[in-house]
Each structure stands twice: as C-alpha cells, then as structure tokens.
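Sequence and structure are no longer studied apart. As an example, we show below a sequence and the tokens encoding its fold:
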Amino acid sequence: MRLLIVEDEKRLAVSLAKGLRAEGFAVDVVHDGLEGLHLAGEGAYDLVVLDIMLPGMNGYRVCAALRAAGNDVPILMLTAKDGEYDEAEGLDTGADDYLTKPFSYVVLVARVKALLRRRGSAGASPLLRIGTLTVDTATRRVHRGDTEVALTAKEFAVLEQLAVRAGQIVGKPEILEHVWDFAYDGDPNIIEVYISALRRKLGATTIQTVRGAGYRLVAV
C-alpha cells in the first residue's frame, strides 16, 4: 500500500518514512501543505499522515479541501499541540484519527494499520483467495492451502498488487508506483527479482509473464 507523509519536520518525516517502508509500505514524503494537497488529490494513496502546522497550507485546510473535493482517503493527523479543541477541529475537518506529538512510533504504526483495516472492512474483504493461495491484506500473511508461506515485506507488497487484480495483467509501472515511492530512480527490472522470489516460494506457474505487458497472478 502507498502512504503519503506531509510533515515539515524533516528529521521526523525521514524517520517515519524509513520505519514504514520497513513495514512494507511505499512511502512518499513532502514538507509543504500545498504540495501535500496536490499529491493527495491525485488519488494514488491508501492513507495520508498529515501534520497540522505546515508551511503553505495548514493541515486543517488540506484535510478540509480533500474532503470538499470528495476524496475519502484515510487521514491520520499529527500535531505538537494538545487539547480537546485541536482534536475536535481536526476531526471536524474530516480526519479519521489524531495523534499528538511526541508519540510512540509503535503507536503510529498501529493507528496506520487500524485505519487501513477499517477502510478494507468497509469495502472488500481483507482475504484474497486465488485457487489454493490465500493472501490476508490485514495481517499480511500468505498461505498455500494450510501451509503458511513466509514472505519479506517487499515480496508481500508485490504479491498484494497482483492479488487484488488476480487474473488481470499488472504492468511494471503500476507495481513500481504502489510498492516503491516516487523518489525511486533505480532499475525498474528490480521487480523481476521479486517476481522470481515469489515464484520460488509460491510455485513457478503461479505468476505468468505477459511479454511486453506485465504479470498475471493465476489460480493453481
């Protein structure tokens, strides 16, 4: 899943991004409210971590603008302030949750995962079944029949992109967009490394290569 962090404290933003990437998320970071609004408005994110005190446009206004435009992306607001008024204002503008600085990184990750689960439960089931393969997007666990298959965070993220569109062709650009952040400028063929690893663990025929187009996850 792809997250956007809008936070002007650069050291904090970099630290959060590093930790969340280690959890298997693709993370983009900006430090200005207007830029955050522009990126979030493009609709490519599964969740936005949004600071309140921002240059350009504060978090309250960013949140309100997104909601006014009909964008329902989950928003976790961060602030150095503390008080019922601030929390109420943040939630009134359409934020889904609120965290006051300083906060525990473990708590932030738990809040992020809870918001993503809540969003999933309101729509599709977190369990994706493709033949004998089961992908649990909530717990990030994979089973082939009754046997659990251990995947790295990045392997799971690649598999998830294929699983949510099982039977369809998923191109490399789409996988890169959702599994790696927009700052990634390395070799796009890195995807092939993860596809090979997934084939070793899930079975060689599980993922088909559609030459010139991308990959397809099939039931076996």
